């Protein structure tokens, strides 16, 4: 059997899996943002009648994943694996959503890079012949993330200008062996890189080197250039991280043009005052499941590189003075 | 394509990256923050003074009026936290709304609200002082040290 692995870190799928359907559910603040109309469902408030922020987040994920299956028009029983992850301790949002969906479940943790990671692993399962349908989904919730990583939600402090706003939202895609829709043609899984950033209010700076490293390896592995893509979107680097990525890439001998953007810069507008942009697993997931998928389907995007970015620290490691390791996972989607 | 092509690796050292990151990270707006803190903090203190004066006019002596005004401000801070307003004030005022006694109320009530879902014992009870705890610990520790020094000096 031919090895599908190419170069340092990339896999090229021999029968590229199809994205049969995608679904996104977001909170009210995301619904008011510039991408508001691209989401399938917008909640009226952040808790939606649930008992806790955590249960609300799990409900977001459940709705997104069920939405994707319904949109594809296949029965749930035909889904072979559910791949999901989120930011909460022991990925409870995913575990609890999996309890409802009752599918064979693989829990993933790649922090905010989990959507791209899930799409890569899901595609490997399908192209490897282990599944015909794989359901991938991730979630994040502003308030559940605040209370776990930072302070109680009603505490009146100031956020730094480099801080980002965790997206309340969940995105899901249903991958299939055959059918019509955009295809996942390749994936580059990232290495964990740590350039010593210790400021948890500056996640973009912590993740940018890992994203740049994945990009460099991706382009070398496939012998491509940034111009070969109609869109290169990093997950949630925000303003600071996106600028740093451009600069680090430039110094490493590759310049990113206007095709490069960051999902964290797309969800909120200036008046929403979120400082450096959006973050969280849900950030790249809802931008991909909504806006990017719609543009791929409409044909205005031909080949997209989605690079999920994750900060692999915990509140404990940060309090103990450890720096924040970053990771970037890339998937190629062609319309 | 060759199987193992390593490197590319980033052509930047952690030291160079640190410099670059410092350059590209926006600086805190210190002057603007100070002005906001000065005016909001001042406003809260002025409201406190008005309350004290009203209590004095109502017949309390100075000490009683100060205690009653503090209690009333704590109540207002707690109420505004419960209504979800205090964190909005804090976003602009910063230290101006954290330092006054209303900020202390906020730092106690916000964990109480947040952790109520984990129950009254392990939630509210155990985590009530997650924000204010350090202030209490080091405030009390400092007062003990000052007390001992005062004892020996007199």
What features would you describe in this structure?
Chain A: It comes from Acididesulfobacillus acetoxydans. Chain A: One of its GO terms (molecular function) is acyltransferase activity. Chain A: It holds the Pfam family SpoVAD. Chain A: InterPro entries: SpoVAD, SpoVAD_sf, Thiolase-like. Chain A: Keywords: Membrane, Transmembrane, Transmembrane helix. The complex is a heterodimer of chains A (about 325) and B (about 150). Chain A contains nine helices and 15 strands. In chain A, about 35% of the residues lie in helices and about 20% in strands. In chain A, the strands form three sheets. In chain A, strands 1-2-10-15-14-11-12 form a seven-stranded mixed beta sheet, sandwiched between helices. A six-stranded mixed beta sheet of chain A has the order 4-3-9-7-5-6, with helices on both faces. In chain A, strands 8-13 form a two-stranded parallel ribbon. Chain A starts with a strand and ends with a strand. Chain B has about 150 residues and is mainly alpha-helical. Chain B has one domain (about 30-155). Chain B has helices at about 15-25, 30-55, 60-80, 85-95, 95-100, 100-115, 120-125, 135-154. The termini of chain B are far apart. Classes of the chains: A alpha/beta (about 325), B mainly alpha (about 150).
């Amino acid at each position: 059997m031919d090895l599908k692995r190419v170069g340092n870190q990339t896999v090229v799928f021999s029968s590229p899996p199809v994205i049969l359907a995608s679904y996104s559910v977001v909170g009210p603040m995301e619904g008011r943002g510039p991408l508001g109309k691209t989401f399938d469902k917008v909640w009226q408030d952040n808790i939606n009648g649930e008992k806790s922020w955590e249960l609300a987040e799990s409900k977001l994920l459940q709705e997104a994943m069920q939405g994707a299956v319904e949109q594809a028009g296949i029965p749930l029983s035909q889904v072979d694996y559910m791949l999901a992850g989120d930011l909460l301790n022991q990925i409870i949002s995913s575990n609890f959503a999996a309890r409802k969906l009752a599918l064979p479940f693989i829990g993933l943790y790649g922090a905010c890079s989990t959507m791209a990671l899930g799409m890569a692993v899901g595609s490997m399962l399908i192209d490897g012949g282990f599944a015909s349908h794989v359901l991938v989904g991730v979630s994040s919730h502003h308030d559940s993330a605040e209370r776990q990583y930072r302070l109680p939600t009603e505490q009146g402090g100031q956020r730094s200008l480099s801080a980002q706003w965790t997206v309340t939202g969940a995105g899901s895609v249903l991958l299939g062996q055959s059918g019509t829709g955009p295809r996942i043609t390749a994936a580059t899984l990232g290495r964990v890189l740590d350039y010593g950033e210790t400021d948890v209010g500056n996640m973009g700076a912590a993740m940018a080197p890992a994203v740049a490293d994945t990009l460099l390896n991706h382009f070398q592995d496939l012998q491509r250039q940034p111009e070969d893509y109609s869109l290169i979107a990093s997950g949630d680097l925000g303003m600071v991280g996106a600028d740093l990525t451009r600069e680090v890439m430039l110094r490493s001998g590759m310049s990113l043009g206007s095709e490069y953007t960051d999902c964290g810069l797309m969800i909120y507008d200036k008046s929403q005052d979120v400082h450096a942009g959006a973050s969280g697993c849900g950030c790249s997931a809802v931008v991909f499941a909504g806006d990017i998928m719609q543009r791929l389907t409409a044909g205005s995007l031909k080949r997209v590189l989605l690079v999920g970015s994750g900060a692999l620290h915990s509140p404990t490691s940060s309090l103990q003075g450890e720096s924040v390791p970053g990771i970037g996972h890339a998937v190629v989607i062609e319309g | 394509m060759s199987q193992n092509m390593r490197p590319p690796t980033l052509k930047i050292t952690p030291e160079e990256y640190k410099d670059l990151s410092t350059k590209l990270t926006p600086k805190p707006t210190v002057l603007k923050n100070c002005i906001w803190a000065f005016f909001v903090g001042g406003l809260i203190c002025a409201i406190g003074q008005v309350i004290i004066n009203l209590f004095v006019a109502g017949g309390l002596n100075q000490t009683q009026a100060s205690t009653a005004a503090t209690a009333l401000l704590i109540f207002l801070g707690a109420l505004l936290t419960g209504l979800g307003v205090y964190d909005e004030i804090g976003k602009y005022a910063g230290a101006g709304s954290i330092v006054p006694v209303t900020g202390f109320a906020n730092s106690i009530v916000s964990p109480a609200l947040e952790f109520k879902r984990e129950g009254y014992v392990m939630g509210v009870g155990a985590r009530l002082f997650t924000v204010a705890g350090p202030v209490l610990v080091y405030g009390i520790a400092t007062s003990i040290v000052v007390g001992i020094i005062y004892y020996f000096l007199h």
